[in-house]
Amino acid sequence: MSRKHRKNRKKVGLPPGAPVYTGEQKTEKISMSVFDYDENNFREFTPKSVEECFPYKNTETVSWINIDGLWDVELIEKLCQHYEIHPLLIEDILDTDHRPKMEDHENYLYITLKMLYWDTENKKTTFEQASIVTGKNFVISFQDKPGDPFDPIRDRIRTAKGKIRKYGPDYLTYSLLDTIVDRYFIILENLGDWIEEIEEKLVDEPERELLSNIHSIKRELIFIRKSVWPLREVLSGLERLESPLLSEPTRAYLRDVYDHTVQIIDTIESYRDMVAGMLDVYLSSVSKKMNEIMKVLTIIATIFIPLTFIAGVYGMNFKFMPELEWKYGYFFIWFIMISAAIGMLFLFKRKKWL
Questions:
Q1: Which has the closest alpha carbon to 180: 115, 226, 270, 103?
Q2: Which domain holds residue 106?
């Protein structure tokens, strides 16, 4: 999927709130899971139909409904309508490249953000859109692709480790946000290793491939910054939000996630400065290498200038020149000239001047 925002043509001309999925259309069935729990009880199951998720709207326990896949618009719309989610938010949920934001509605909170992953093989950041709806006793999470980093949260719910079974849906929302933000640190660690790898080669071997890598890192940092910067506003808004859906203990944890976001932004800015410095070092190294090449070529030209001058004045018109009487002299001279040209090309290639 392209990481550049492109307005989907299918949405042009439609009224506001029209549910249109903007991602890659698929044919397989959407995956759903339900975790229903309180401090003493726990239940986990996979619904066969969306209607099986309806009873968890008004329960005394905490219910987490997770949706993997957004291409079944009818299913998403039916679930959201039952939980009284605004049509404009349904449109945002189905938008796979929406800017991170938070909205406070009377009976629920809506949060959308990007989940980032690091592609080790291609050294590239991939993403998927994630949306979270938090109500009085439920959390609904929407993901564009199957698979997520939430397995540790599921394990804590199953085993009743930590505070997650003792707190409400707001704490579960915090846990989801914290897990997503922690993935950003993993990506920055990989980018940091890549930057160090380039720095080691930059001064000694300023190859064109390094310049391409520098620009690739710069693009990745710009993309991550575009994902994290509005997320900081989201977390800051949640922290200051006066809503009965957020308890005071959870606000303290949200402040911690906000601090992590600020730390990520600071790291991104540091990396951007490093990449800008690396670009300057690359240009300086290339200039230095070019000066060394010009120095060698200047020495060679200086040596041959007087020789060429003397040969030009006298024209090699001497009476006693053995090569003039030699049968293969002409071909031998051509051999020497061609060999000299090939030898210089080989030398320049070996020194990486070409």
A1: 115
A2: 15-283
Q: What does the alpha-carbon distance between residue 43 and residue 337 come to, in Å, rounded to a whole number?
A: 86
Q: How many CB atoms lie within 10 A of CB 131?
A: 23
Distance from C-alpha of 138 to C-alpha of 251, rounded to nearest angstrom? 18
Residue 247: which CATH number? Answer: 3.30.460.20
Q: How do residues 106-136 score in pLDDT, each as one tens digit?
A: 889 999 999 999 888 888 888 889 999 999 9
Rounded to two decimals, the pTM is: 0.79
Which tens digit of pLDDT belongs to each residue from 315-343? 666 666 777 677 777 787 788 878 877 88
| Residue 116 DSSP SS3 | strand
Backbone angles phi and psi of 218, in degrees to 5 = -60, -40
In the chain, how many domains are there?
2
Q: Please provide residue 107's backbone torsions phi and psi, each rounded to the nearest 5 degrees.
A: -110, 0
**Looking at per-residue confidence, does 55 or 210 come out higher?**
55
- Strands 109-119 and 31-37 turn out to be unpaired
What residue type is assigned to position 301 of the chain? A
Pair (206, 339) in one structural domain: no
